[in-house]
Write a structure and sequence with these properties.
disordered C terminus, 34 helices, 885 residues, alpha+beta, single chain
């Protein structure tokens, strides 16, 4: 038996029912208590393995695993070595704040594998030693004979050996929207999960009927367990932001080293002492390190999180905010994501005419009315209307028939009161039809619904609005084929009007064919427009579904993802492809159908191997591995499972694909703001480095002390760069193409502008420093003036940072009121520092006179003039097609 359990599930699928018990050393009397105990010892409990969650210390240490943070830790150590304890304390406070925000964000994340445990049934109904009993599902072992019935969750993977009208909702594993009718007969091998109809899988729900089956897989070797193992083993890829931060931190690290090393030969040539040279090196290092960047990055991402939450997109991992702006491909599930996850009748064909449910008039013909009536009476679902609310219960296909009848003027409640049931033939998968025998006291009707070809075999003629006509099987088959080609699930209706009640209930014959009803899980409102918007933005949308190829292509065509006749790649097709072939195919295929979790994972990896930044949507357990591996996993909040939400980076509270489109826009705004913040800080740091290097080379005293530079970087800068995180986004941002994965945080244009603004601000600051030093002879007064000059330069420069291309004079100052407040606050803080005794002592500054203030204000406008000239020239070149950057 152990060898058999190790085999592929295809062995159980193809095995005749009489051989299943023998392969499991089991039988209809069930296992004995001794055999159960032995197998429990051998196979262990029927529980999914849970990964131990990371400890508090591990999560905390993870917050410090960033190259930029490493640089800041080095800066802290250096400032401690030179006994600048205030400086060290400030930098460490920055690190602690950043780590605290990240720590609490990460601790809130749910554990996806733990959520899987909620899908394992707590109890199971088994046969043991010839007696029925209820046991904990964790006690099940391979070979147990399990009984399942409507409303129960399947407790283990079962090979069914008998069924009675059994159907299971397997959407959490396959994504297919309709329950799957089960039967016990052996099948062919190599079938996808959704077609293994003689199996019942752990965690799925029995929607109707009952059945018996032998346990063939427990715990981690169930289909659900395999997904749990994948979730544990898959490693989340580094986000584009994390990759950019790593590259950027290397650049900053090189700049720190070069700046510090540059001071050594300059100082030696000037004959300065080693202690002075060391102090200059520290000042340069502190100038080069953007101490506030980790915190402001976190704040910028948090602002994006709040804005997305207002659009019903809940972000679980901060970097996902920016990654959304880099998305190049969205791999969307069909059921519940692009569609409503509710079967809906689209059209009815009867009496030689086709009527659309959404466009019908109130007067339907007799053949149409009888077709609708058959759908109501040969039906076990229920419908209740309370005011404007319509509540249905039962199989989605049957509830769709009730709703279509009501919308076309046939009231199910009225007709069911009028026509009482005298006998029923319930739907059986092997029969492929259901029949209801009804009477109103005088007339006796037999009403049938089922597969079109099956119902045709029962019919002798067909209904028209004026009576009956000879049966035309070819017309019915052609109409059925045309409807099915558009992805509709088609049911046929027929009836017979008898003069007396039925005797023995048997398969009806000699019926009158009535018509066809075609239904589908329809697209969500606004999805088509959102997909068109994604395509305009350079984002490709593909469908990855467990549903059938025809249905998937029909929906894809309807929402604008594909065209009729486009190729569809199925899971079976993918089994014949190696990874290289699949990489070539994913670039031009819009629909992947009948896929398993492993197939979906391969599609995501193939897209990523083609340098795509991939978002994947999903709501079922089957989606969880792909959600985890994707650059952004997007789970459904309303219809999604806890497992999908736990594996995702973002959860849609409204299950609306449209919200993804809005989130992409906000992701682009967030990245733009990250770029603006970084440019603002780096250009300010460049000015500080130049000021110190030029002063040292010229043999001047230091224009600014390390404590003053930290004040500049962490306080006055820190107020304004945070305000830039609240920029609302520039016009047309959603219509830009996605950013390349290897594009840096700072663009080439902004690096060039960093050099420009750094030179302008450094020149202005050095000029003011030298002028005040010559005029007053006071180094403290000159350093206070130089520090103040950079504070005002940065206040002006904050306006430059609001857009790479647009003039600051074309941007309303009130579109970001936080920035106005921040600029005023930064200047106010600095003025206070010049006059308060405590800050005068810590920063070694003193008040400056009115004349110096006037000169500083005039000189600071030079950086605005320089950047406006640069923007104007670039716009002119861009329009002429010359030298565009």
């Amino acid at each position: 038996m152990a060898d058999q359990l190790a085999n592929d599930v295809a062995d159980w699928v193809t095995m005749p029912t009489e051989e299943v018990a023998g392969a499991l050393d089991a039988g209809p009397e069930g296992l004995s208590a001794e055999e159960v105990a032995a197998r429990q010892e051998s196979f262990g409990p029927n529980l999914l393995t849970e990964a131990d969650p990371p400890g508090v210390l591990a999560v905390l240490l993870h917050q410090f695993q960033s190259p930029l943070v490493y640089i800041l830790l080095v800066a802290t150590a250096v400032t401690l070595l030179i006994e600048e304890y205030v400086d060290a304390g400030v930098i460490f406070a920055v690190l602690a704040l950043n780590a605290g925000i990240g720590f609490f964000q990460e601790r809130k994340a749910e554990n996806a594998v733990r959520a899987l445990m909620g899908l394992v049934a707590p109890k199971a109904h088994v046969v043991r030693s010839g007696a029925d009993r209820v046991v904990e599902s964790s006690e099940l072992v391979p070979g147990d004979l399990v009984l399942v019935e409507s409303g129960q969750r399947v407790p283990a993977d079962l090979r069914l050996v008998s069924t009675t009208s059994l159907a299971c909702d397997e959407s959490l594993l396959t994504g297919e929207s309709t329950p799957v009718a089960k039967r016990a007969e052996p099948l062919t091998s190599d079938l996808p999960l959704g077609d293994r109809i003689n199996m019942a899988f752990t965690g799925t729900v029995v929607t109707s009927g009952r059945g018996r089956g032998y346990v063939v897989a427990t715990a981690d070797i169930t289909e659900l367990g395999k997904i749990a193992t994948q979730i544990r083993e898959e490693v989340e890829p580094a986000t584009p932001l994390q990759q950019r931060m790593t590259r950027f931190a290397r650049i900053v690290g090189v700049a720190v080293a070069l700046a510090a090393l540059a001071s050594l030969p300059l100082g030696l040539m000037r004959g300065e002492t080693l202690s002075d040279i060391f102090l200059v090196g520290v000042a340069l290092a502190v100038s080069a390190i953007p101490e506030g960047l980790p915190v402001v990055f976190t704040i910028t991402l948090a602002v994006g999180v709040q804005r997305m939450a207002r659009r019903n997109a809940i972000i679980r991992r901060l970097p996902a905010v920016e990654t959304l702006g880099s998305i190049t491909v969205i791999g969307s599930d069909k059921t519940g994501t692009l569609t409503t996850n509710e079967m809906t009748v689209q059209e009815v064909w009867a009496g030689g005419q086709t009527v659309s449910i959404s466009e019908h008039d109130d007067d339907v013909g007799e053949a149409m009315r009888l077709t609708l009536l058959a759908g109501v009476l040969a039906n076990e679902a229920s419908i209740r209307v309370t005011g404007d609310e319509v509540v249905t219960t039962g199989d989605p296909t049957e509830t769709a028939l009730l709703v279509s009848a009501r919308r076309m003027g046939v009231d199910p409640s009225v007709e069911r009161r009028l026509w009482t049931s005298s006998a029923e033939i319930p739907f059986e998968p092997e029969n492929r039809f259901a029949a209801s025998f009804r009477t109103d006291g005088e007339r006796h009707l037999v009403l049938v619904k089922g597969a079109p070809e099956r119902v045709l075999d029962m019919c002798a003629d067909m209904a028209t609005d004026s009576g009956s006509a000879p049966l035309d099987p070819q017309l019915v088959k052609a109409t059925n084929a045309e409807m099915a080609s558009r992805g509709l699930r088609v049911l046929a209706m027929a009836y017979r009007d008898d003069p007396s009640p039925p005797g023995e209930v048997e398969e009806p014959q000699g019926l009158t064919f009535l018509g066809l009803q075609g239904m589908i899980d329809p697209p969500r409102e606004g999805v088509k427009e959102a997909i068109a918007g994604c395509q305009r933005s350079g984002i490709r949308v593909v469908m990855i579904t467990g549903d059938h190829a025809d249905t998937g292509l029909a929906i894809a065509t309807d929402v604008g993802l594909a065209s009729a006749g486009d190729p569809v790649v199925t899971g079976e097709d993918m089994e014949q492809m190696d990874d290289e072939v699949l990489r070539d195919r994913v670039g031009d295929v819009a629909v992947f159908a009948r896929v398993s979790p492993q197939h979906k994972l391969r599609v995501v990896r193939a897209l990523q191997a083609n340098s795509e930044v991939v978002a994947v949507t999903g709501d079922g357990v089957n989606d969880a591995p792909a959600l985890k591996v994707a650059d952004v996993g997007v789970a459904m909040g309303e219809s999604g499972t806890d497992v999908a939400r736990g594996a995702a980076d973002m959860v849609l509270a409204d299950d609306n694909f449209v919200s993804i489109y809005e989130s992409v826009r906000q992701g682009r705004v967030t990245f733009d703001n990250l770029r603006k913040v970084t440019f603002f800080l780096i250009s300010s740091g460049a000015a500080e480095i130049l000021v110190i290097l030029v002063a040292v080379a010229a043999g001047w005293p230091l224009p600014m002390l390390p404590a003053q530079i930290l004040w500049l970087n962490l306080v006055t800068n820190g107020v304004q760069d945070v305000a830039l995180a609240f920029e609302p986004g520039e016009k047309g941002i959603i219509d830009r193409p996605p950013r390349r994965r290897n594009e840096g945080i700072i663009s080439r244009l902004l690096w060039e502008r960093t050099a420009l603004t750094g030179v302008v601000m450094a020149a202005g600051t050095l000029g003011i420093f030298g002028w005040v030093l010559d005029r007053t002879g006071s180094l403290t007064q000159a350093q206070s003036a130089a520090l103040t000059a950079l504070v005002i330069f940065q206040a002006v420069h904050a306006g430059n940072a609001r857009s790479e291309h647009t003039s600051v004079f074309r941007i309303s100052p009130f579109s970001n009121p936080f920035l106005l407040t921040a600029v005023a606050g930064a200047v106010g803080l600095h003025i206070g520092a010049l006059y308060l005794p405590f800050t005068q002592f810590v920063l070694r500054v003193e008040p400056i006179d009115l004349t110096t203030w006037m000169v500083i204000l005039a000189v600071s406008l030079s950086v605005l003039t320089a950047v406006e000239a640069d923007k104007y020239i670039r716009r002119r070149f861009s329009r002429s097609g010359v030298g565009a950057t």
